[in-house]
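Researcher: Structure prediction, please.
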Amino acid sequence: MSTQAPAPTRREQILKEAARLFAERGFHGVGVDEIGAAVGISGPGLYRHFAGKEAMLAELLVGISGRLLTGGKRRAAEATEAGDAPAALLDSLIEGHIDFALDDRPLIILHDRELDRLRDTDRKLVRSLQRQYVELWVEVVRRVYPGLAEADARACVHAVFGLLNSTPHLGRPGALPGREATAALLHRLALGAFGAAHASDGGAHASDALDR
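Model: Predicted structure follows.
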């Protein structure tokens, strides 16, 4: 039986090229005609799929936040069904986020640069999806490290996301180790960050420091 992934739809092709071009040249630096040319259709032909560039940007940013949350929930459900230990689920969540960080770098750049261009409703939806994703991680981290205060666990999750999402700034792809080696390094660093937070839990909590 074939396990080959289905070919991307025209809509998916458009979004992929739009993400690449927006990340390379900025939202306002790219025209509809250029996105169309990248997928082999006329600029006006794009309007059969999207109302305009703003609609593409919204689908890209809302879409990736939704995909991360859905993927995290799926991994949690699979771990529960398999009876996996919390540490195994944390490993799985880290692996899933690393896949995103290595394979969808243009979307990380877009989020950092262009989130404020979304309509209020779309931006609020992105933030809501992201909060749910963070809280899913916080719950798992506290199951692995029960002594870690909730505020500290949440701060650590945000810090790990910052670490993993730094991939667009790690240099040219050819200057990095291979994908497998880079993924393994990021995984060790993420686990090290959580372990360090747990090891320092006997001292002042991060939340206490923020209150001072």
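Model: The chain has two domains: 8-50, 54-199.
Researcher: Thanks, that helps.
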